[in-house]
Design a protein that fits this description.
The protein is built from 13 helices and 17 strands. It is an alpha/beta fold. The strands form four sheets. The chain has a six-stranded parallel sheet with strand order 5-6-4-1-7-8, sandwiched between helices. A six-stranded parallel sheet has the order 11-10-9-15-16-17, with helices on both faces. Helix 11 links the parallel strand 16 and strand 17. It catalyses: (2R)-3-phosphoglycerate + ATP = (2R)-3-phospho-glyceroyl phosphate + ADP.
């Protein structure tokens, strides 16, 4: 896989695929972590004398322009973080984009509008994706892939364009791959994995793979109630995936056979409604009242998880322990984050909601070994899947 050091970019136009898929409240960015993570590669290209054309997506528009998914707020924030102004093109490959690129001076940045406003970006038809990739490639001389959060997608701006221009990996993708190799190829043990989030079905494949690699798996979040149900406990009105109960039972059996420790909460915070103002109480995980739903692991579970992490040498964490955005249900996620810091282990926070939680709850990002920008991509890598956006870079062009 070529890197920035292998590419001749001086005086050239570089199409840089970044991951700028940030959460918005209207046009206000609520977490700019992914924008900040993109800055080092932009600056490195500028320092090498490149003109940088940034391509990215935001949300899931339906292949046509949708104002609520515009990257305009991102352009403003990116400009604040860089030491050069950012010109925003009002389309992806149309008149605005072509004019903005044609007018680029040395050491300048253009951000194209959301690539998913073009149906060719995500099309399953190779010809349609290829046609859009041709239009993107016409804007530039070199392609740099740095949007790790999208490398598990076979999309035009991630995969097809790398076949059309001299290509290499940006600093963020290099860092992400280095870290993931530490979690799969040369793991320092004991290796603990903390999984949370809402649905166990989202994590099935990674659990299956980690049963072959991890020493312990700690489960919280909404997905834990399917595990509790699989053990014969009632879970009240908590989130439950009935169709996954047998699969989860199979995982618990396999873990026992392989000597992998599964750690489940001993208590939960159960509320009458999905609301910060609802009546809530700490109850045993085995005795959730029929009229309540679990919205966080309880304080004893937080201590249990932290104690388990204290002996680990490597920790991967993906998914919050509860509805951390609401203060009454943030304690479990806070305890796990602090447990990672206190462990002294090599710690990886696996993107998405976990990374947002770390920032929202006020933790110093530097306290963790690595905070990934790509939750889905990280999980698929750990599942052992081939990620199209990385595979095409390995092929080289």
């Amino acid at each position: 896989m070529k890197t920035l050091d292998d590419l001749d970019v001086a005086g050239k136009k570089v199409l840089l695929r970044s991951d700028l898929n940030v959460p918005l409240d209207g046009d206000r960015i609520t977490d700019d972590g992914r924008i900040r993570a993109s800055v080092p590669t932009v600056n490195a290209l500028l320092d090498k004398g490149a003109k940088v054309i940034v391509a990215a997506h935001l949300g899931r528009p339906k292949g046509e322009p949708d104002p609520k998914y515009s990257l305009a707020p991102v352009a403003e924030r990116l400009g604040e973080l860089l030491d050069v102004p950012v010109t925003f093109a009002a389309d992806t490959v149309g008149e605005s984009a072509r004019a903005a690129v044609a007018a680029m001076p040395e050491r300048s940045v253009v951000l194209l509008e959301n690539v998913r406003f073009n149906a060719g970006e995500t099309s399953k038809d190779d010809a349609a994706r290829g046609a859009f990739a041709d239009q993107l490639a016409a804007l530039a001389d070199v392609y740099v892939s740095d949007g790790f959060g999208a490398v598990h997608r076979k999309h035009a701006s991630v995969y097809d364009i790398a076949k059309r221009l001299p290509s290499g990996a940006g600093l963020l993708i290099q860092a992400e791959v280095t870290v993931l190799k530490k979690l799969t190829e040369d793991v320092e043990r004991p290796y603990a994995v903390v999984l949370g989030g809402s649905k166990v079905s989202d994590k099935l494949a990674v659990i299956a793979n980690l049963l072959e690699k991890a020493d312990s798996i700690l489960v919280g979040g909404g997905m834990v109630f399917t595990f509790l149900k699989a053990q014969g406990f009632e879970v009240g009105r908590s989130l439950l995936e009935e169709d996954q109960i047998e699969t989860v039972r199979g995982y618990l059996r396999r873990a026992a056979e392989r000597g992998v420790e599964f750690v489940l909460p001993v208590d939960v915070v159960a509320a009458t409604e999905f609301s910060a103002s609802a009546d809530h109480a700490v109850v045993p995980a085995s005795q959730i009242p029929a009229d309540r739903l679990g919205l966080d692991i309880g304080p004893e579970s937080g201590k249990l998880f932290a104690n388990k992490l204290a002996t680990a040498k490597t920790v991967f964490w993906n998914g919050p322990m509860g509805v951390f955005e609401m203060e009454p249900y943030a304690g479990g996620t806070r305890a796990v984050a602090q447990g990672l810091i206190d462990s002294g282990a090599f710690t990886v926070v696996g993107g998405g909601d976990s990374a947002a939680a770390v920032r929202l709850l006020g933790f110093d990002e530097a306290s963790f070994g690595h905070i990934s920008t790509g939750g889905g991509a990280s999980l698929e890598y750990l599942e052992g899947k081939t990620l199209p956006g990385l595979a095409v870079l390995e092929e080289g062009n």
